[in-house]
Structures are given as structure tokens and as C-alpha cells.
Design goal:
- The protein is mainly α.
- The protein folds into 2 domains: 1-17 and 43-178, no CATH class; 179-220, no CATH class.
- Helix content is 74%, strand content 0%.
- It contains 9 helices and no strands.
- The chain has helices at 2-14, 17-20, 46-62, 71-81, 87-98, 103-145, 150-178, 182-197, 202-218.
Length: 220
């Protein structure tokens, strides 16, 4: 809802109502089809699988900006609304996604696996990936045709600004859970300074921080 409101604000700012009267009529809405995935598991509650599918479909459809922008949405649903995972388990899922290619899909699959095993992982992965896939296939020609349209440009600017705010919010969500003592605070500050002042590859920095954390935990 926040992204949609921000997009509409962008429309109001960059495509004033006076211009709308001269706008070309947009093509009719395209039908959206959702493929059905059936995964059988003896000890899996079908209701949980349905909830996973619907939740991650919404996550893929209404969250954009980068992989991190989806974190607050996932935390709200996975931890607070449904209670599928604890805060610690959710952070483990986010970490698993961030250190692998395709962080959004991997995080979704990892959460689905923790909740309902292989069927849950499959449905969560399909659910989060399906909306952007359908949007590209169905709406790409329309977007390319009207990409310079003031309404499209204004909506994109507003929604992208909201996505940047969501990324900052994701950093706050993760930071409040993992920066818990002096050691983690020092690692955080050091990583921030290194990334800000140098061009060191992020995987190398993450690996070095992991080794530091492992050594520190060994001597506790």
C-alpha cells in the first residue's frame, strides 16, 4: 500500500491533473493468470501451504526496489502475523539469502522450507517469483510503449523513492536484531567504513566478518 500511495503522489507531482485530460487512453487491463502448483506431503498442513503461497505471491507482487526492500514485509508476515518463525530464525533466513545469488528467492525458499519442508520451499519460491515474471511477460510491451508517459514516469519516481525508504527500514530491522554487543557494533562500523571508503568486494568483506565472528565466539 505504501508503494502504491507513493506512486500516486509521484503521479500528482509529475503529471498534474490538467495534463491528464490530454493523456492517451491506456489499454485495458491485462488478465493475470496464476499457475497452480500441487505438492503432496504426508505431514504438511494444506492450509499452511495455501497461506505460504498467497503470502509470498503478495510479497513478489507488491514489494520492489531491491532484495532488501522485501525484508520488512516478510518480517511482518512471517514473524508477527503468522508466527511461523522466531526473530532469530527469520534473520537466519535473510542471511542465507544475502550470501547467495538471488537473495529474494533464496530467502523465500528458505523460509518456506523451515515452515513446511520441501513443499513449503517449492510453493514459497514459485509464489515470490511468479508476480514479477508475469509482469514482465504481460506488461513489458505496454510499459515500453508508455515509458515516457508522465503518469508512468511520475508513478515510478514516487514508488522508487518509497523503495529507498523501505531499504533503510530493512537495515533498521536487521540492525536492531544483530547488533547486540560491542563486538557486533565494531564489526558493523568497520564494514560501513570499508564499503564507504574502498571498493572491496562485498563477498570478501562478509567472509572476513564471518571469520572474525567465528574466532570471537571460539574465545568466549
Amino acid at each position: 500500500m505504501l508503494f502504491i500511495v507513493a506512486g500516486l503522489v509521484g503521479v500528482a507531482l509529475y503529471a498534474p491533473p490538467g495534463w491528464l485530460g490530454r493523456a492517451q487512453a491506456a489499454p485495458a487491463g491485462l488478465p493475470l493468470g496464476l499457475a497452480t502448483l500441487s505438492a503432496a506431503a504426508q505431514n504438511t498442513d494444506p492450509n499452511v501451504l495455501v497461506q505460504l503461497g498467497v503470502f509470498f505471491f503478495k510479497a513478489g507482487a507488491f514489494t520492489f526496489g531491491s532484495g532488501l526492500a522485501i525484508v520488512p514485509f516478510l518480517q511482518q508476515g512471517v514473524v508477527r502475523d503468522f508466527g511461523w518463525l522466531s526473530e532469530r530464525e527469520f534473520l537466519d533466513a535473510v542471511a542465507m539469502g544475502m550470501i547467495t545469488p538471488g537473495p529474494v528467492v533464496i530467502t523465500a525458499v528458505f523460509v518456506g522450507y523451515l515452515v513446511a519442508g520441501l513443499p513449503g520451499a517449492t510453493i514459497a519460491g514459485v509464489g515470490v517469483f511468479l508476480p514479477p515474471f508475469l509482469m514482465v511477460v504481460l506488461f513489458a510491451p505496454w510499459i515500453m510503449r508508455y515509458r515516457t508517459h508522465p503518469i508512468v514516469v511520475g508513478f515510478t519516481k514516487g514508488a522508487t523513492a518509497a523503495a529507498a525508504g523501505a531499504i533503510v527500514g530493512a537495515g533498521a530491522v536487521i540492525g536492531t536484531q544483530v547488533i547486540v554487543d560491542v563486538a557486533t557494533a565494531l564489526i558493523f562500523v568497520a564494514a560501513l567504513v570499508v564499503l564507504w571508503r574502498t571498493k572491496i568486494p562485498e563477498p570478501l568483506l562478509v567472509g572476513a566478518a564471518a571469520i572474525i565472528g567465528l574466532v570471537a565466539s571460539t574465545f568466549r
